[in-house]
Amino acid sequence: MSAGDPGKGILKLVAISLGAFVFTFSLVPLYRIACEKVFGIRLDNSAADASAVAAAVPDERWVTVEFDGTVNSKLPWGFRPNATRMRVRVGEQYEATYAAHNNAGRAIVGSATPSVAPARASGYFAKTECFCFTAQTLQAGETRDLPVRFIVDPSLPADVHTITLSYTFFKNDVLTERLAAAAPSSTVPHSAP
């Protein structure tokens, strides 16, 4: 080996580290682009934007928002909206809640994925606060109301009169296993759900 080879190796390691760093920070904007452009999910959740939308309401337009909730078969939870529909004035903020119940004998972490129908209405449905923004942990037998705050943009196409907000909860295996590993070892062993 020549004396210059260790320097080249260090340069390669620095370049790989720098590349990994740049890739990691590019994931957030790439995720935003994928959600907003590809899937039509609007991720803007600022209260300032909610106030701006509310101030821009041109008239007394009302639409119906329907709520739906399901769970993936791997998640032993019950999950449903507390109200199945709501009449809302465009441009105003509203809150709806969903009830989640852990039927298992141990704590489980779940993550919710939202969808809006019809698809062309998704760009006009803004969630300003949502349980879907973070993973949810329910203890064994726990029931909790999960809120979602939203605004329907006044520029929603005129022929859209009903919007359906659906959520599907999935078991977050990684976070559930971390939670189980962190639990005191003196507990009784649990069977898998």
From TrEMBL:
One family name in Pfam for this protein: CtaG_Cox11
Known function: Exerts its effect at some terminal stage of cytochrome c oxidase synthesis, probably by being involved in the insertion of the copper B into subunit I.
Keyword Cytoplasm: no
Membrane topology (UniProt): Single-pass type II membrane protein
Family membership noted in the UniProt record: Belongs to the COX11/CtaG family.
Entry keyword annotation includes Transmembrane helix: yes
Organism the protein comes from: Luteimonas kalidii
Subcellular location: Cell inner membrane
Entry keyword set: Copper, Membrane, Signal-anchor, Transmembrane, Transmembrane helix
Transmembrane region(s): 12-31
Domain of life of the source: Bacteria
InterPro entries: CtaG/Cox11_dom_sf, Cyt_c_oxidase_assmbl_CtaG
Protein's name according to its UniProt entry: Cytochrome c oxidase assembly protein CtaG
